Amino acid sequence: MSAGPRTPFENPVVEWVDQRLPIFTMINKEYGVFPTPKNFNYFWNFGAIAMFMLVTMIVTGITLAMHYAADTTVAFDKVEHIMRDVNYGWLLRYIHMNGASFFFIAVFVHIFRGMYYGSYKAPRELLWIFGVIIFLLMMATAFMGYVLPWGQMSFWGATVITNLFSAIPVVGTTIVEWLWGGFSVDNPTLNRFFALHYLLPFVIVGVVFLHVWALHVTGSNNPSGIEPKTEKDTLPFHPYYTMKDSFGLVVFITIYAVFVFFMPNALGHPDNYTPANPMVTPAHIVPEWYFLPFYAILRAINFDVGIPFTDIVFFEAKLGGVLAMFGSIVLVALMPFLDKHPVRSARYRPKYRIALLLFVLSVFVLGKIGGMPADAPLMHIGSFLLTTTHIAQLLTLYYFAFFLVILPYLSKREKALPMPESINDAVLQCKSGKCCEA
Amino acid sequence: MSSNDHHSHCCGGGNCSPSTEIKDQKTEECCGHCDEPSRRDFLFMTAGAMGAVAAGSVVWPFISQMNPAADTKALSTTEVDIASIAEGQAVTVMWRGKPVFIRHRTAKEIEEAKAVDVATLRDKQSDDQRFKTRPEILVVIGVCTHLGCIPLGQKTGEVKGDYNGWFCPCHGSAYDTSGRIRKGPAPKNLEVPSYSFISDTLIRIG
What we know:
The complex is a heterodimer of chains A (438) and B (206).
Chain A: H1 12-20, H2 23-32, E1 35-37, H3 46-65, H4 75-84, H5 89-116, H6 125-147, H7 152-163, H8 172-180, H9 187-218, E2 234-236, H10 237-262, H11 292-300, E3 305-306, E4 313-315, H12 317-333, H13 335-338, H14 350-370, E5 377-381, E6 384-387, H15 388-413, H16 423-431
Antiparallel strand pairs in A: 1-2, 3-4, 5-6
Helix pairs in contact in A: 3-5, 3-9, 3-10, 4-5, 5-6, 5-10, 6-7, 6-9, 6-12, 11-12, 11-14, 11-15, 14-15
Chain B: H1 6-11, H2 25-34, H3 39-64, H4 70-74, E1 78-81, E2 90-95, E3 98-104, H5 107-115, E4 137-141, E5 164-167, E6 174-176, E7 181-183, E8 195-197, E9 202-205
C-alpha cells in the first residue's frame, strides 16, 4: 500500500487527497488496472457476492439491533415488535434472516470453486486458510444469531450445540457452565450471544481484509489453473470483471429477493415461532440447513471408539462425534497439504474430478440425512434394517477418506491430461470447440 | 532488542565500548566473561516473567466474568414438598433452570431396578447408589446426558421407553426406573443432584 510512482489525477480534490494519502492510486491499482486472468467463468463471481452479503448482513443487523433487546423476558416479543410495529421491520428482518442462508450459499459455491480449480494450492495456501477461518467465524456468528429470537429452536439448538463441549474429558462441564454463565442456557447466555453476534461480523471483516490482501499478492487462480505468463493472459479488472461481477450479483440478488418477498420462511423452522420453553424439548431438533451436513457427521458417530470386546474405551461416542464434526472442517483447511498434485485444475485431473464430485454429492446427502430424525428406518435388507444412520456413517467415511486417503493417493498417482501452454492457449482451444471442460 | 545487536548482547551492558572489535584482546576478555548469564539476561527474564503474570491477571477477570454470577448461584437451591406425590406419580420441578424429575416409585419399579445386573450397564451404578434413604423417592436431573434434551415419561400417557423409565425423543436414549442409561447414544445415567431430606415430606435440592 506504499505510494510508489503516482500518476496525477485530473480532479484537483482527488489529486489533493491522493498526494497526502494515495488511496485513489491504491484503488486504481487493486481494482482498476489490476491484471486479472481473462478466462474467469461465473464461479469467480462468488467472492464478490459473498462480500456483498457480508455488507448486507452488517447493515441490516445494525438496524435490527436498534429495535431488539437481549433479555429472555422480552427477546421473543421484540422480534414480533420488529415484524409488526417497526417501520419496514419485517423487511429488515427477512433480509437478514434469509441473508444468512444466501451468504452461506455464496460461500459454499466459493469454497467449491476453490476445490474444483485447485485455488488452495501453492502459493495460495494462506489465502485458503484465511478463507476457512472466515467460514468458521461465519458458523459461530450464524449459530449465535439464531439464538437471539429466543424461540424453541433457538433455545434447544443452543442447548444441544453448547452441550457438545461437555464431551471434553474432565473440564467439559466447567467449560459448558462458563459458556452459559449459569447452569443451563438462560439470560446470561442470550446476553453474551448478542454481544458476540454483534462483534464477530467485524472480526470477519478483518479476516476478509487479510484474505483479499493475500489474494492481491498472489493474484487470482483461474479455470485452467495455469498462472498468467504474458499480458495476453490477463485483462484489467475494470471494466471487464466489475461488469461480470455486477451481472452475476444482480442474478443472485434476484433469487435472494424471491425468497425475501415471496417465501421468507421457507428456509426457517416453524418451531422457532414458539417462545423458548426450557421444560419442553421439541420432538425433532434440527439446526439451520447450512449446518446439516456437519450435524449428520456428528450423529453418525454413535459408537464408542476403543478396543473391541473389552471395556477399554478411548473416547465415548459423544466425544467421537464432536471430534469428527470439528475435524471435518479442519481437514478443509489442511487441503493444500494433503493434495500435492502439481496440476491445479480438475479440468486436467479426471480422477480428482470424479472424487470431488462424489464428495460434493456425499455432502448433499449428509445434509439431507442431517435434517431427518436420527435412525430413521429406510428399508429392510433381509433381517437387517437399513437406517439413515448407516448411510450417514458410510458417507462420513467417504468424507474423511476423500481428504486422508484419496487426495494423498492421487497426488502421487494421477496422470494429468495434456495442458495448454498458457491461459491464452486454453481460451483459444475452447474457442475452437476443443474445450475439455466437463 | 534485535539478536544481531552484537555489542549489547555479548557484553551485557558491561564496560566494552561499541567501537571495540572482536579480535581486540580486551573484548575477548569481556565476552568470555559475558558468556555467563549477565545482569541484563536476569533483568530480561524477570521482566518477562512479571509481564506474563501481569498479562494473566489482567486477562483473568475478562474470562471469569463469563462464569455463573453470584445471583445465579444464589438461586441454586430449591425446596420441594413431596407429600403430595402419590405412589406411581411423578412431578417436575425447576432447579438451576433445568427440570428435576421426582418420581415416587412403585414396589414393582423398585424391583425392576434392583433386578438388573450392574455389570451389564453402560454406566455401572446399582439402584442403591441412585437414591437417598428412601428407595421409593427417586430424584434425578431431567436432562438427557447425550445433548441436553428433556426426556419424556413424566406425565401420564407419555412414552417411557423400553425400560419403563424415561425416553429422550431427540436421539432415542432410554432410561430405566432408576434413571440409568440402557439404550441409545447417551453416555451416562441421569444425574442425581445433591439433595437432602429436611423432613419426611420436604427435600432441598442443591
